[in-house]
Design goal:
This is NAD(P)H nitroreductase YodC. Its EC number is 1.-.-.-. Keywords: Oxidoreductase. The chain is an alpha+beta fold. The chain has one domain: NADH Oxidase (3-Layer(aba) Sandwich), CATH 3.40.109. 48% of the residues lie in helices and 13% in strands. It contains nine helices and four strands; from the N terminus they run ααβααβαααβαβα. A four-stranded antiparallel sheet has the order 1-2-4-3. Helix 2 packs across helix 7 and helix 5 packs antiparallel against helix 6. The N and C termini lie far apart (41 Å).
């Protein structure tokens, strides 16, 4: 009981202390190992049919960050943060269904027969969907993993800011990203040089309704 209470308190602290930070210490470097730990926590997020359409492009090279800067409307955190992480969605994630269920079988979560049936159902169902629907799914799942990434970073003492303000076409061109993938957002990750600004939230009763929606 004590451990559970401690974890709940720590989680409440993380979600209340996480703010979007736009000023970073440019001298602070986060190791690749630490970034991998954060991403490892992020990918525990849920996704549609567990197809995990998220992909990450981690940009730590300073010269590359300088190239991204104008694409991201010269937001200084692009170059000052330790890393800029592009969250990308795979609209053909269903193609990985066999692989996912092979891992599930190896872990003892499903039998080979059940895994094969579930993989086939995913491939048949998602491959018949229109591209716009697949894109919508990838964006929703990309949002879920992005939020988890930012909370995971805060839990380790780092700060982040999500950025939708960038030119996706120019970004895709710079990194030769195939049409199969959709850009979800950029996330700056680093050590804050100034605290993020606290923001107000609408009262819960203004954004919540029970058993019916009145508009």
């Amino acid at each position: 009981m004590t451990t559970e209470l401690k974890l709940e308190v720590e989680f409440n602290k993380v979600i209340r202390e996480r703010h979007s930070v736009r000023k970073y210490d440019p001298s602070w470097k986060i190791s690749d190992a630490e970034i991998k730990e954060i991403l490892g926590d992020a990918i525990l997020a849920p996704s549609s049919s567990n197809l995990q359409p998220w992909r990450f492009l981690v940009i730590t090279d300073q010269a590359l960050k300088e190239k991204v800067l104008p694409i991201a409307h010269n937001q200084q955190q692009i170059v000052d943060a330790s890393a800029t992480i592009a969250v990308i969605g795979d609209i053909e994630a269903y193609r990985n269904a066999d692989k996912i269920y092979e891992y599930a079988e190896a872990a003892g979560y499903v039998t080979a027969e059940v895994g094969a049936a579930m993989a086939k159902r995913s491939k048949d169902g998602y491959s018949s969907m229109p591209q716009e629907k697949l894109k919508e799914i990838a964006l929703v799942d990309g949002g879920l993993v992005s939020m988890q990434l930012m909370l995971a970073a805060k839990a380790k003492g780092y700060d982040t800011v999500p950025m939708g303000g960038f030119n996706p076409e120019q970004f895709r061109e710079l990194f030769n990203i195939p049409e199969r993938y959709v850009t979800v957002m950029l996330i700056a990750l680093g050590k804050a040089a100034a605290e993020g600004r606290s923001t107000a939230r609408l009262p819960l009763n203004e954004v919540t309704q029970w058993n019916g929606f009145q508009g």
